[in-house]
Structures are given as C-alpha cells and as structure tokens.
Write a structure and sequence with these properties.
344 residues, alpha/beta, D-Maltodextrin-Binding Protein, domain 2, 2 domains, 15 helices, 15% strand
Length: 344
C-alpha cells in the first residue's frame, strides 16, 4: 500500500511537472507566422517582407516558422481589408500594407473597410521613396521631355488610392504634366515589366525596388530615372529632380508636402489587426526592432543595396494620428485630386 501511494505521488508529480513545462512553453513555439503582402512577387513590398521573414523568427520566443503570402488585387486593398476584418487577431498574422491606402481611408473613400487608426503598428523598415523611371525607347529621357510632351505620356498604375497611383495623380492633377494613367497592374514589378515591353512609357516605384530588380537596365541606360518623390535627394540620385522642385505655387507645394512627403513617413508599415493581445504585440515589436540590428539581416540589406530607415510602432501610430487631424477642406481637395472621375 505504501509503495502504491509513493508510485501515485511520483506519477502526479510527473504530470504536474510536464503540465507546468507545457504551460511555460512560448506561445509561438511550433507555430507559423504569416506576413501578408498585397502585391505580386518581385516588388518592393514583397522584397522587404521576405527579407524580414528570413530573420525575424529568431527573435520571437519559440522561434516560429515565418512565411510570406501574396494576396493580390485592388492595389493591395483586398489584403488590407482582409488583415483588418478577416484575420484572427492572435498575433500569427502580420500584414505589410501600402501606406497610400491609409491616406485614402482617411479621405473617406468607399470600399476601404478598415480604420487606419485602429490598426496596431509593429514597425517599418524603410519608406516608399518613389522614383519615376522611363524606358529610353519611350523618348522620355528627362523631366523636360515629359513636361513638354505634345501628347499625354502613358504611366502605369494599380488602382486609385495606393501610393503609386497617388504619385501619378499628383503629376497629372497638381504639377500639370501631360499624363495618361494606365491602371490595373498587380504590383510595381508588373508596371516595370510593362515599361520594358513598351506597353507604357514609364511608372513609379520604390527606388529600392527599382535599383534591386533593374540594375542592369539602369546601368545600360535602357531605363532612366527622371524624378524622385522625397524631401531630400536619395544618395544615388543626387542630380535627379524632386517633385517638390516642380511645384510653382504655395498650394502645389502644400499638396506635395502632404501626399508625397508626409505620407512617405507611413508608406510601408507592418501591422496586426486590432484586438491582438498586447503581450504578443510587444513580442512582435521587439522582434521587429531587433531584426533591424541583426548582422545577417544587415548583410543582406547591404548586399541588395537597400535603404534601411526603421521606424517604431509608436512612431507610425503618431504619424497616422496626425493625418487624421487634417481639415475637411483639404481632405475634400485631396479626394478630388487622387480620385478624380472615380465613381462618376
């Protein structure tokens, strides 16, 4: 009897020990974390998401597997809507949405089924830092050639409202360059392919994406960067004009500041759905920032000649919140510029 009681006590102890060990196991152990991207493979968003997927797992307790999922359509809107309302807020899915959609939602456009201020921002690795590139065979080899073109110049876009199309609209509606926007492409890489084939004369994309995927064409002069949308010239493009340089009036400068410069600050966020447990948010935020300092991650960034300009989740939250305070008159003006003719 005594031996039986001892055996039972040992068994109970083992059960409690194993149960306690299981309870102590990290939430992410043995799980898979998804990073969703709203564009096709090969573009800037996809590039950065895959770069993070290769390194961030080592900084998440439990070292989960991290994969990238491309959810294309509507210029990233399908992915962003899904992240907000169709994704379980369990910390296992992190999205990399297009910041231009954040602006469009704040302007009150229909179909944007998310609230930018309710997303929980994890961080950002860089900014959009757009550059307009044209094929040599299009004849648009400088900003002057575009401005003085006798016919509208075809540029590629996705759908109204994303960052790329916002830049196209700014050039057409605010700066006043002769421009015909051809929409419907699934991602920036698809636009650049269309530039190569002659389907369109040019288009815009993140400078990191262009220089990484079209290095040879840039070196041979088959593709030419004629404009950049940044506050300060990018280090590789010291002599390429900035969009703000083309603005002639105070109103034009104000609009470029809002849509090009300010929106660039939150143009490439990583975020999780509202309702995600705070402890998992903190785990992901810390892991994200640690990844930006990781030696192997930084080696890849250097090898691909990318621009690392990280921001914290709190910094992104503040940037988005500041936009929400915009006056209604300015919002109405921007809505007319960025969505002119839509829904009519």
């Amino acid at each position: 009897m005594k031996r039986s009681l001892i055996a039972i006590a040992i068994l109970v102890g083992l059960v409690l020990f194993v149960s306690g060990d299981l309870c102590a196991a990290p939430f992410y152990q043995g799980k898979t974390v998804r990073i969703t991207v709203g564009f096709s493979a090969g573009g800037g968003f996809d590039l950065w998401a895959r770069l993070f997927s290769r390194h961030i797992g080592k900084y998440i307790p439990g070292n989960p597997t991290v994969v990238v999922e491309n959810i294309t359509g509507a210029g990233g809107l399908i992915q962003t809507n899904q992240l907000y309302k169709g994704t379980k807020p369990d910390g296992l899915t992190m999205g990399h949405p297009n910041g231009g959609l954040i602006l469009s939602q704040m302007l009150g456009m229909p179909g944007y089924e998310f609230d930018s201020q309710k997303f929980i921002y994890i961080g950002a690795a860089n900014k959009e830092n757009i550059a307009f590139v044209f094929s040599k065979k299009s004849g648009i080899t400088s900003i002057d050639k575009w401005r003085d073109s006798p016919a509208p110049v075809k540029v590629g876009g996705l759908v109204p409202g994303n960052f790329m199309d916002n830049m196209d609209r700014m050039m057409k509606e605010v700066i006043g360059f002769p421009t015909q926007i051809i929409t419907g492409y699934k991602g920036s890489n698809d636009v650049i392919i269309a530039v190569e084939s002659g389907e369109v004369a040019g288009g815009n994309s993140s400078w990191d994406g262009i220089k990484n995927s079209r290095k040879r064409q840039l070196e041979t002069g088959d593709m030419i960067v004629v404009l950049q949308g940044v506050r300060k010239p990018l280090k590789e493009l010291p002599n390429v004009p900035k969009m703000i340089d083309l603005a002639k009036t105070d109103e034009q400068k104000k609009l470029v500041q809002l849509v090009v410069h300010d929106a660039n600050d939150y143009s490439r966020p990583f975020a999780v759905p509202p309702g995600t447990p705070s402890d998992r948010v903190e785990i992901l935020r810390k892991a994200f920032q640690e990844t930006t300092k990781d030696k192997e991650f930084l080696a890849e960034v250097d090898k691909m000649q990318l621009t690392l300009d990280p921001a914290t989740g709190d910094e992104l939250t503040t940037a988005v919140a500041s936009w929400a305070k915009m006056d209604q008159t300015t919002k109405a003006k921007l809505k007319d510029i960025l969505f002119k003719g839509e829904g009519k």
